[in-house]
Amino acid sequence: MTVIFDGIASGMLLFLISVGLSVTLGLMNFVNLAHGAFAMFGGFVAVTLLNRAGIPFLAALPLAAIGTALLGVLFERTLYRRLYAATHLDQVLFSIGLVFMSIAGAHYLFGPQQQPLTLPTFLQGQINLPGLDMGVYRLFLIVLGLAIAFGLQKMVTGTRFGAQLRASVDNPRTARGMGINVDRIFTLTFALGTGLAGLGGALGVEMLGLDPGFPVKYIVYFLIVVAVGGSGNITGSLIAALILGVFDVAGKYYVPQAGAFVIYAVMVAMLIFRPQGLFGRKAAR
Amino acid sequence: MIDLTPLTRATRWHPAELVFWLLPVAGYFLLQDNLVLLTQIAITALFCLSLDLILGFAGIVSLGHTAFFGIGAYAAGLMAAHGHGDPLLGLLVAGICAAVAGFISSLLVLRGADLTRLMVTLGVAMMLYELANKLTPITGGVDGLQGMEIQPLFGSFAFDMFGKTAYWYAVGVLFVMFVIARRLVHSPFGLSLKGIRQNVGRMPAIGAPVNARLAAVYTIGALYAGIAGALLAQTTQFVALDVLSFNRSAELLLILVLGGSGCLYGALIGTIVFMTAHHFLSDMNPEYWQFWLGLLLVLIVLFARDGVMGGVRRLGALSKGGAKA
């Protein structure tokens, strides 16, 4: 039971980080391998605020998200938008370039070691039920993840912005013709995606660790979530992330010698038999 | 009657090409102290050539080309570590292993579009990395594969500590493989690959079996990569887990776009420029080399998509235009 619980918690974390990628990769059709770099940025913002400025954890989280979102807007405005129409290969090369730069930058600013993070006391400790030990922080992650998933789903299906986003993605030209400012929608969406990545990165310091290698170490996990969950599908991403989290934690717990092998094998098999993902629909363009 | 002169002219060796191949000879005499680096350049050039065949000519994007490099390196390494140290035999076996792996994975890779291909190739390479990492008794895991004994080349040229034999061996293999690749891309087969890259929809209409051709070139690319990996293993007498790392795949892509993909000399020149820059920059500042690497990638994508060879071609066009005017 505890294994499943931990798996769900780490799945929630994966979901938070990858849902932004699911939007850029799945809906806007941009292969952004630098997504992990944004998550890392959020993590570093949170750690710096906590350890150097002494800002409380709960306040540092939204600041990390906002900071990363602003960085996302900056990059989208100046660089990413030039490459929306480029080939996938160009997008891959470009984002790998960003990843390399972010790794070296993090190295330069923070050094190669893992960053320490101390949780506030009310998030430490465990709740012990018969047969189930729940870490308070993990419970916090699960609740937060569910809340955000619910909020996003409501936003995409229920608000004017969500409708405009779906229209822009399905057919940018027609959307533009209807008077929707597609550029602005994409910028906002990109900001939302990177902001969530930043939040996830900040939340993940405790569980995934944070060092300059972060963007490469976890990029495959994020890609798997998107690949399995289907493009731009929030519920799909959530379910895929949960499955992945549970399998990953259970795998490490029960068959440590297999390592991450199982996860990669599942991804490749998945992509071959259902290229559009478990719950996917066809991407635009 | 169709006029084939442009095609036959392209097959003929240009004088500049002959000059280019004098470079390794000149390099041997002028840079005696740097033979190890030059050997590395030759090996990476061969590896890059293999990516050029599948990406530049056939248009298959791959983020996991190291998979075949690694297979070749481990195959040759394991052979040598278990007493079969003949270098050419090792090369052959490594090439065959990689080609078989390439053929099998081509069945997976060719099923999807760009995005799926990226992820499948990446996934396959990561799987192999994990496998090599976990099979410590066979591969040595993180510590690398050691204890290789390479017999003298052709039974008479031993691998010396100055790397002279290794250098000529690597350059010789590179040259032979290059000539074969050159024949290949100018053959009808090579032309059909270009056609596939430029217009997938039309190729079946003129009777080209698209998937069979792509599978074939992917297998050949894997063979080349395997041989490059084997060369690395044999000349350094060591196989590090790093041969399968993601960074190596990414770096290789960078080298290829730096030189200019879709042109065999692009792969070679890109490697020379990149490795030389790497050598000098990481001497000055090893830790942040990666930063400049990333910046370079971003700049290439934004401003100079066709690489060094594209620049050369543009210069050539300019001077021709100037001559006419």
From TrEMBL, chain A:
Any single biological process term in GO: amino acid transport
Membrane topology qualifier: Multi-pass membrane protein
One GO cellular component term noted in the UniProt record for this chain: plasma membrane
Keywords: Amino-acid transport, Cell membrane, Membrane, Transmembrane, Transmembrane helix, Transport
Record flagged with keyword Cell membrane: yes
Pfam families: BPD_transp_2
InterPro entries: ABC_transp_permease (IPR001851), BCAA_transport_permease (IPR052157)
GO molecular function: transmembrane transporter activity
Residue spans crossing the bilayer: 7-27, 33-50, 57-80, 92-110, 131-152, 185-208, 220-247, 253-273
Compartment(s) where it occurs, according to its Swiss-Prot or TrEMBL record: Cell membrane
PANTHER family according to UniProt: ABC TRANSPORTER ATP-BINDING PROTEIN, BRANCHED-CHAIN AMINO ACID TRANSPORT SYSTEM PERMEASE PROTEIN LIVH
Family of the protein in this entry: Belongs to the binding-protein-dependent transport system permease family. LivHM subfamily.
Protein's name in the database: Branched-chain amino acid ABC transporter permease
UniProt organism field: Zoogloea oleivorans
